[in-house]
Design a protein that fits this description.
Elements lengths: L2 E2 L3 H12 L4 E3 L6 E5 L3 H11 L8 E3 L14 H10 L4 E6 L8 H4 L4 E5 L4 H10 L3 E2 L14 H8 L5 E3 L11 E4 L6 E4 L5 H8 L7 H4 L18 E2 L9 E5 L8 E2 L6 H15 L6 E4 L8 H12 L6
Bound molecules: threonylcarbamoyladenylate and magnesium ion (MG).
Length: 316
């Protein structure tokens, strides 16, 4: 599978592929997405097939701006405020589906809601503006495996099923978008991510469900407990690793195999998380031992992904 630099010509070509129903992987500021025309049932079905993803897991629909979702979802005042503040950026809003919504029912996986997001990566934005269609895009990795933060990660996991991989360099944020459900009066956090819970509460007031995602409630069908899994076992909150373990540190740690952020910067740690888990996932080690990460700001999203990486396997 060829990896293509995002020249204007390549973006035109990728947009044409999307419009014709083919799959294109593209960079976002969070992770690489596996994109398809959100209104095309067969194209959306091809995403599920390429990822080996359970069909009950709904997909995020990406557009170039808030107005692009007018026909797809019912956008209330809260959604408008969040969009004005956080878009383009790593926030996904779950809203009621509008009657006659062009978005494939497969995207919603049987729910009467639709998840929407405007990514801030310039390549993603220019692809969406050029394609002039809504694009369904989960992370571009096989289901249950670590999300890709470089074009090469995508090629390693999904080669063969894609028309094209656009290379926009490593992802700046490194963990997926925050997913907030706005279908009820009280907003619910379905997935911690690139926008912190604190920042959401500043805009919305009370937000329910911080922590509820860990047990996987009925409103977060995509949150399978074993997810983001390396092949090696993962041990969390480990002060010092055993000699046969890969030691993934946070903060000062002499002898660490890799360090998410020697200076304890959570944004740096989030950006490094998936690529470091990948490079430590080698048979030379018996396990990956991870130092404690604080539970505030981006630490909520980092710990969520780490707990999934450490969860017992085969719980799908
Ligand atoms: O950062 C991201 O969000 C990346 C990039 C590519 O945009 N995409 C991503 O998509 O992480 P995916 O499919 O791997 O995760 C989508 C999440 C899942 O947890 C899914 O359950 C939730 O969004 N979701 C999507 N639609 C939903 C809906 N209608 N109701 C509830 N949850 C929904
Ligand atoms: Mg994913």
């Amino acid at each position: 599978m060829s990896i293509t630099l995002p020249t204007p010509t390549a973006i035109d070509e990728a947009a044409a592929f999307l419009r014709s129903g083919a799959l294109v992987a593209f960079p976002t500021e969070t992770v690489y997405g596996l994109g398809a025309d959100a209104a095309n049932d067969r194209a959306v079905a091809a995403i599920f097939a390429a990822k080996g993803r359970p069909a009950f897991n709904p997909l995020i629909v990406h557009g170039p701006d808030l107005a692009s979702f007018d026909a797809a979802a019912i956008i209330d005042d809260r959604a408008r405020r969040l969009a004005a503040h956080f878009w383009p950026g790593p926030l996904t809003m779950v809203l009621p589906r509008r009657e006659g919504s062009p978005v494939s029912l497969l995207c919603s996986a049987g729910l009467d809601s639709v998840a929407i997001r405007v990514p801030s990566h310039p390549v993603a934005l220019s692809l969406l503006q050029t394609a002039k269609i809504l694009v369904a895009a989960p992370s571009a990795n096989p289901s249950g495996r670590i999300s890709p933060t470089t074009a090469r990660h995508v090629a390693e996991g999904l080669s063969g099923t894609l028309a094209m991989i656009l290379d926009g360099g490593p992802c700046r944020v490194g963990v997926e978008s925050t997913v907030v459900d706005l279908t009820a009066e009280t907003p619910t956090l379905l997935r911690p991510g690139g926008i912190t819970l604190e920042a959401l509460r500043d805009m919305l007031g009370p937000v329910a469900g911080a922590g509820a995602h860990l047990s996987g409630g009925p409103r977060s069908p995509g949150m399978l407990s074993s997810h983001y899994a390396p092949k090696l076992p993962v041990r969390l909150n480990v002060a010092t690793a055993e000699p046969n373990e890969a030691w993934l540190a946070f903060g000062p740690a002499e002898g660490a195999t890799l360090n998410l952020s020697p200076g304890k910067d959570l944004a740096e740690a989030a950006a490094n998380l998936f690529s470091m888990l990948r490079s430590l996932d080698r048979p030379d080690y018996q396990a990956i031992a991870v130092m404690p990460i604080p539970e505030d700001g981006l630490g909520l999203a980092i710990n969520d992904r780490l707990r999934r990486a450490a969860a017992p396997r085969g719980t799908v």
